[in-house]
Amino acid sequence: MQHINLYKRSLVLILSVVLLCSLFTGCAPKTKTISFMVFGEPAELAAYQTLTSAFQEKHPDIEINLVHIPSQSDYRTRVAADLAAGTAADVLLFNYRRYAQFAEAGALEPLSAYLEDSKLLKAEDFYPQALEPFRYNDQVYCIPQNLSSLVVYYNQDLFTQAGVAFPEMGWTWNDFLSTAQALTRDTNTDGQIDQFGLGMEPTLMRLAPFIWQNLGEVADSDLNPTRLMLDMPENFDTIYFFTELQTLYHVVPNAEQEAAESSESRFLNGTVGMYLNSRRVVPTLRETAAFNWDVAPLPMKEEAASILHADGYCMPSASKEKDAAWTFIEFANSVEGQTIIAATGRTVPSLRSVAESPAFLNPDQKPASSQVFLDAIPIIRAFPILPFWAELEKIADDEIERAYYSQTTVPEAVQAIILRVEDVFVENAK
Questions:
Q1: Which of 305, 381, 369 has its CA nearest to residue 168?
Q2: What is the pLDDT of residues 338-391, one digit of tens each?
Q3: What is the CATH number of the domain that holds 290?
Q4: Could you give the number of structural domains in the chain?
Q5: Are residues 123 and 166 in the same domain?
Q6: Is the pTM of this model over 0.85?
Q7: Do 254 and 218 belong to one domain?
Q8: Which tens digits make up the pLDDT trace of 137-160?
């Protein structure tokens, strides 16, 4: 009888606890919610949706609120405002050229300790070309998801129609120009060019690899620059070659034509033969391009060179859910996470094991020549990591664009860049 009574009392106690848990949900695992903000075209967003869905299946106790800002410039404006206000998303994507100002201000959480303690990630598993640019003041601030180089996307159908050979490793600036000229056509004989050989942004990011290929330098030091070096004699030759693609040879759209329709849009709709970009355009091309296309390395002059395009997952220091945010960052950059995002075409994985696997080098998915991205890793260079680098780059972009569209001369543009960035260096040396 005593055993029966004890059993009844135990059963009543268990039922009471269950009832209280159901009423107040205090016994169920708490669901944490973190926000993750990204930018990009719809196909890029879909890649991140795939990633976050996979994460939530594995971690049902953490809910991801995915915030999408389509425009990259709008994204940067929003991130800066949110970080200043202490209201930023728990996980942000930053390009390596733009995080240092926020790290310097204490707005980003250092991730070195998290990385050292991780069971999923090891620093030595990443390509150093991807990880090192996210190291600032001896701390890793963001975990890189990718390390794309700048490559030439090309419309194979237009090449075939024009009887032009596909670009290959080792092709030269002269080959590049003659190919662009052969692909620039007035297809309906109305006296107006309606198919351009090349689409290319007139920015320092696009110009820099050509500078390095011609043995020039962008800055006087990669680690502690004090000035830009665009007034080097070698650099004048390069800048003339770069701008004359538009001003002299007209193989790229002029300012009015570019404003009417961007080079990226023209390439996507089949009216530009070659287009310079990083890996990020691949999901959109896979989804929308109605022609055969592939990628090729940049042409070369004195030596081969390309430029780093890398985004990293970063955590604001004001995040109230740092452990959950790190759990997502860790998953996204694990072999599993990077395999998922690589399959979407969005990235050149920063993990060596994933980059060299079929997840990235998939022969059944375009581009067929994805190996081009991996072959470029040894010749990739990065811009210096400075809190005010974005300001310097904006000055250079403004003047390069003016020269590119014949609104000023190359010497005037270079002089303006040197004088304007000197003021920025002086101001930040105080």
A1: 369
A2: 999 999 999 999 999 999 999 999 989 999 999 999 999 999 999 999 999 999
A3: 3.40.190.10
A4: 2
A5: no
A6: yes
A7: yes
A8: 999 999 999 999 999 999 999 999
Positions of E strands within 290-416? 293-296, 306-307, 311-314, 380-381
The β-bridge partners of 39 are 69
| 251 and 189 belong to one structural domain | yes
21-28's contacts with Cβ under 8 Å and 24+ in sequence apart are: none
Q: Is residue 26 part of a domain?
A: no
CA atoms within 13 A on the CB side of 277: 21
Q: Do 291 and 355 reside in the same domain of the chain? A: no
Judge contact between 55 and 337, C-beta under 8 A: yes
User: Is residue 315 situated within a structural domain?
Assistant: yes
Does one domain contain both 203 and 229? Answer: yes
Residues with Cβ < 8 Å from 291, sequence gap 6 or more?
Answer: 155, 156, 157, 158, 270
**Same structural domain, 170 and 185:** yes
Does 6 reside within a domain? no
Mean pLDDT computed over 37-47: 91
Range of the domain at 369: 32-148+309-381
Same domain membership, residue 261 and residue 225: yes
Can you tell me the distance from the alpha carbon of 48 to that of 256, in angstroms, rounded to the nearest whole number?
Answer: 34
Residue 418: CB partners within 8 Å, gap ≥ 6? 227, 228, 230, 231
Residue 241 domain-assigned?
yes
Please, are residues 144 and 276 in contact by the beta-carbon 8 Å criterion?
Answer: no
Burial class of residue 211 in the structure, from the number of CB atoms within 10 Å of its CB (0-12 exposed, 13-18 middle, 19+ buried)? buried
Which residue is listed with tokens 């970080």? 83
CB of 328 within 8 A of CB of 64? yes
Are 210 and 272 part of one and the same domain?
yes
CB atoms within 10 A of CB 7: 10
Q: How confident is the model at residue 29 (pLDDT cuts 50, 70, 90)?
A: low
3-class DSSP state for residue 197?
Answer: strand
| Helix 204-213 × helix 233-247 angle, to 10° | 130
Phi first, then psi, for residue 162 (nearest 5°) are: -85, -5
